[in-house]
Amino acid sequence: MKILVVGAGGKSGQLVVERALAAGHSVTALVHDAASYKAPAGVQVVTGDATDAATVEKAVAGQQAVIDAIGGKTPYLATDLEQHTAKAIIDAMHRHGVRRLIAISVLGVGDSKEQAGFFYEHLLMPTFLRGAVPDKEAMEAEVKASGLDFVLVRPPFLTDSPATGQAHVVTDEDKAHKITRADLAQFMVDQLQSDTYLGQAVTVTNS
Question: Which of 195, 196, 179 is nearest to 15 (CA)?
């Protein structure tokens, strides 16, 4: 499958690219700064602003699916990066007839707040994530209204530990605590060819 990874230069995005290549997909990476991105062999790189319609249009053309792995480096600051990136991606996907969109959200958005533990809900969300959560909420609204075949993935606290292979979807009011970026990346790549969670926002966790 030909896929575009938006935000491929970030920690999670780089792992998404690696896992997608390992799964046999043909990958295009949209990055803000090509000079600081070391693209794996075989990856096509498009450079530019992910909120810019022309840049995203160029990147989406010819793809069969898109993974939105973009994320700000300062989640405690107010931003609309996620919302505007999603809008640019969705508009381009409609124009080019691309149907499948997998996007990283965050635990605490929508009904997933019920799945957050005390520390996450009462300490992380009001402080470290106070800028990211509203932007992720706006991004999710854009995706849900898009009419595309989407999966929104809501991870809890992300770690850089090695993959465990144990990522699972949290149901009901069970709590999510943490997940490795590698396991998150694998879960997102798996959704490219699975309809299990199509049209849903799901919380994924290791524990």
Answer: 179
In tens, the pLDDT along 41-57 reads: 999 999 999 999 999 99
Residue 124 — left, alpha, or beta (φ > 0 → left; ψ -120 to 50 → alpha)? alpha
CATH number at residue 92: 3.40.50.720
Q: What is the pLDDT of residue 82?
A: 93
* Predicted local distance difference test score (pLDDT) of residue 193: 96
> Around 10, how many Cα atoms within 13 Å sit in the side-chain half-sphere?
20
As a whole number of angstroms, the distance between CA 148 and CA 139 comes to: 14
Structural domain containing residue 143: 2-205
Q: What is the structure's pLDDT at 190?
A: 98
Which residues on neighbouring strands pair with residue 29, listed in sequence order? 5, 45
| Nearest partner of 89 among 59, 62, 116, 47, judged by Cα | 59
Assign 155 to helix, strand or coil: coil
Amino acid 120 reads Y
Residue 104 CA from chain centroid, whole number: 2
Question: Over the Cα atoms of the chain, what is R_g?
Answer: 16
How large a percentage of the chain has pLDDT more than 90?
Answer: 78
Contact by Cβ (8 Å): 128, 120 = no
Domain count, the chain: 1
What local confidence, expressed as pLDDT, does residue 76 receive?
66
pLDDT at 126 over 90: no
